[in-house]
Amino acid sequence: FSPSALTIGLTLVPIKNIERELICPICKELFTHPLILPCQHSVCHKCVRELLMLSHDDSFDAGSECSMPGSPRSRVPSPSMERLDRLVRSGGSRGSMSSPGWRRNSVTPRVTAIPCPGCQHDIELGERGISMLFRNFTLENIVERYRQAARAAVAIMCNVCKPPLPPQEATKSCMDCKASYCNECFKLNHPWGTPKAQHEYVGPTTNFRPKVLMCPEHEMEKVNMYCEVCRRPVCHLCKLGGSHANHKVTSMSSAYKILKEKLAKSIHYLISKEDQVRTQISDLDVLIKQTEENGQLSEREAIAHFDRLFETLQERKTEMLRSIDQSRNRRLDQLKGQVEEYQGMLENSGLVGYAQEVLKETDQSCFVQTAKQLHVRIQRATESLRTFHPASNPCFDEFVLDTSKEEMLLKEMCFGGVPDPPLIDLSRSRVYNEATICWRLSDDHIATDHQLLEYRRLAICREDGVDSGSWRTTERVYGASTVVCDLEPDSLYAFRVRSCRSSMYSPYSPEVTFHTPPAPAFGFLFNDKCGFSAERLVLSKRRDSVESQAGMAFLLASERVQTGSYIGLDYIIGDMGITQGRHFWAFRVEAHSYMVKVGVASDTKLLEWFHNPRDTSSPRYDQDSGHDSGSEDACYELSQPFTLLTLGMGKLFIPKASASSVSSSSALVSTAASERVLPMPQRVGVCLDYDAGRVYFYDADTMRCLYERQVECSGTMYPAFGLMGGGRVHLEDFITAKRLTF
């Protein structure tokens, strides 16, 4: 498969359609001298300078001018104050001139951390600042071609034609002289027999890129290698004693070929999916229309809700005002009546004089006849004065409303919009006996209050009559992950999550399903004391990762390798054994691994491996090696005190003799060579049923059983791994968590 063959079948995209890829994310203009940041995003050189410093008088210090020997240094116009102010507000505020990390009139500032406008991550440039960045010549050329396509009607003129003759249209551009020439001027300035005749020339252009790319750390060295760790070109000095001394590098030609093939394949894939993209665009158009309609419907419903609220409040207001008015009128009538009564007392003040005249009566019979009625009247007036009470209370306390709760409810109504739903991150979520579910929150600038995770157990088989369980909700989660405990083994669970902000809940995230392992998780770390080969195996400090590498032992065995022998497997086991029950563990094998064997082994077999060494180096020796050799079928035995399955070079190998041992429900009963080789899963799971004497191998992401067989469980069984050549095995965090905590 060659990129050139692929390119022939591609439909070329018009250059005018790629303008959005040629716009700087900061200045929103076409790239000018773009630099490649460590995160692989490109930014104009002048924009990086504006982010780093606010000096107007610094000269043009092109980040990769050091990789352009002989190129003229030009000066960049000072950026406008408006743009500088915008950059400072948008993230460049850390570069304030008042900051102690800056030196005035310094080309390289002390603090060289800038926020990438593409991914928003902080980029640390080091002490050399922008001089450590490569210039993106490829992007620069594409921008130049875009400019030329945009001004195709305007020809490039000769830079050397002298007046009074008008300048002629240029036919060539010299990459060394960095000038364009017509035919006559080119011959005059590049005569045969002179050094200039050896100059490199191309068609008319205004983009004079350097002929070679130079290393920014070693300015006189060309880059000729590619660092796979840092993903950037390096020179041989960087590899020998520089910052890339211990990194894996490859030749530039190999990196060019691999990356070009990958890019060509990706382009071919995108073009082959053109119909799918058009369908998705149509679906998005439908969603846009539905969004518009649903938004208008929600707007009408909101107006209706508030109108009902206003009507209810208006009714309550009218009723309350009517009650207050009735109470006020009643009280006024009572008080006015009492005033009239007392007014009458003032008007009857002649009663006292009349009584005094009655007292002058000397006839006893006449006095008694008149005084009896008069005494009753005077006694009534006296009693009224002694016990004075207003006929009504002037206070209206019973009509004072406490609306604090209602006001709080109204304030809690969020009109800022429903938060967007989070998305469950499948790459970080893991499900065993317990589930660690991680999600990515929406990019909404308004923070959410909390999240709620819901989960339920799904029926794997409809024949058992078990329906999907009801949704269960976890406690409020104030973060981006949570742990769900007590999950049933060998079960399918669905999970979903939603966010809450100001009592407003987002829609649920799309449901994701996870299959729990067939047995409880077995926790262990790698054992560095039992048969561990420190010469050829490198164990991480946490003992959760082991790597096989060629070292001095490989060099010492070079003569044996030359005569046809093989390098032996280096075994390593877990530090915990199994003597009963069912147990499950999972791990990852790096895709670049040459050969890794995984499975179980008994303590008796381990003694044979570690204390009675033999020539186990040949791949044909191990009857379960997975290599396509006929010898392994002849002496294959179903019951062994060990089982090892082979993985390597991105593949998983099913042994030939598995046809009689794989369960009838498995689809891998065929012994055809093509069906014995499977793609290596991202994560591999192993389940050992000690009591039944059976071991199972799973794709740990889907819990699909890939291979199973009988194993003789005698004594203590250990997780076992064998590595040959370059390779690496990582234990899953959930498997190592309890042991690391202990």
From TrEMBL:
<dbReference type="InterPro" id="IPR003877">
    <property type="entry name" value="SPRY_dom"/>
</dbReference>
<feature type="region of interest" description="Disordered">
    <location>
        <begin position="62"/>
        <end position="82"/>
    </location>
</feature>
<keyword id="KW-0833">Ubl conjugation pathway</keyword>
<feature type="domain" description="RING-type">
    <location>
        <begin position="24"/>
        <end position="66"/>
    </location>
</feature>
<dbReference type="Pfam" id="PF00643">
    <property type="entry name" value="zf-B_box"/>
</dbReference>
<dbReference type="GO" id="GO:0001669">
    <property type="term" value="C:acrosomal vesicle"/>
</dbReference>
<dbReference type="InterPro" id="IPR017907">
    <property type="entry name" value="Znf_RING_CS"/>
</dbReference>
<dbReference type="InterPro" id="IPR047066">
    <property type="entry name" value="TRIM36_Bbox1_Zfn"/>
</dbReference>
<keyword id="KW-0863">Zinc-finger</keyword>
<dbReference type="InterPro" id="IPR003961">
    <property type="entry name" value="FN3_dom"/>
</dbReference>
<dbReference type="InterPro" id="IPR000315">
    <property type="entry name" value="Znf_B-box"/>
</dbReference>
<dbReference type="InterPro" id="IPR050617">
    <property type="entry name" value="E3_ligase_FN3/SPRY"/>
</dbReference>
<keyword id="KW-0175">Coiled coil</keyword>
<feature type="domain" description="COS">
    <location>
        <begin position="359"/>
        <end position="416"/>
    </location>
</feature>
<keyword id="KW-0479">Metal-binding</keyword>
<dbReference type="InterPro" id="IPR001841">
    <property type="entry name" value="Znf_RING"/>
</dbReference>
<dbReference type="Pfam" id="PF18568">
    <property type="entry name" value="COS"/>
</dbReference>
<dbReference type="InterPro" id="IPR036116">
    <property type="entry name" value="FN3_sf"/>
</dbReference>
<keyword id="KW-0963">Cytoplasm</keyword>
<feature type="compositionally biased region" description="Low complexity">
    <location>
        <begin position="67"/>
        <end position="81"/>
    </location>
</feature>
<dbReference type="InterPro" id="IPR003649">
    <property type="entry name" value="Bbox_C"/>
</dbReference>
<dbReference type="InterPro" id="IPR001870">
    <property type="entry name" value="B30.2/SPRY"/>
</dbReference>
<dbReference type="GO" id="GO:0008270">
    <property type="term" value="F:zinc ion binding"/>
</dbReference>
<dbReference type="Pfam" id="PF22586">
    <property type="entry name" value="ANCHR-like_BBOX"/>
</dbReference>
<keyword id="KW-0206">Cytoskeleton</keyword>
<keyword id="KW-0808">Transferase</keyword>
<keyword id="KW-0862">Zinc</keyword>
<keyword id="KW-0677">Repeat</keyword>
<comment type="similarity">
    <text>Belongs to the TRIM/RBCC family.</text>
</comment>
<dbReference type="GO" id="GO:0007051">
    <property type="term" value="P:spindle organization"/>
</dbReference>
<dbReference type="InterPro" id="IPR003879">
    <property type="entry name" value="Butyrophylin_SPRY"/>
</dbReference>
<feature type="domain" description="B box-type">
    <location>
        <begin position="210"/>
        <end position="252"/>
    </location>
</feature>
<dbReference type="GO" id="GO:0004842">
    <property type="term" value="F:ubiquitin-protein transferase activity"/>
</dbReference>
<protein>
    <submittedName>
        <fullName>Tripartite motif containing 36</fullName>
    </submittedName>
</protein>
<keyword id="KW-0493">Microtubule</keyword>
<dbReference type="InterPro" id="IPR027370">
    <property type="entry name" value="Znf-RING_euk"/>
</dbReference>
<dbReference type="InterPro" id="IPR013083">
    <property type="entry name" value="Znf_RING/FYVE/PHD"/>
</dbReference>
<dbReference type="InterPro" id="IPR017903">
    <property type="entry name" value="COS_domain"/>
</dbReference>
<dbReference type="InterPro" id="IPR013783">
    <property type="entry name" value="Ig-like_fold"/>
</dbReference>
<dbReference type="Pfam" id="PF13445">
    <property type="entry name" value="zf-RING_UBOX"/>
</dbReference>
<feature type="domain" description="B30.2/SPRY">
    <location>
        <begin position="504"/>
        <end position="739"/>
    </location>
</feature>
<dbReference type="GO" id="GO:0005874">
    <property type="term" value="C:microtubule"/>
</dbReference>
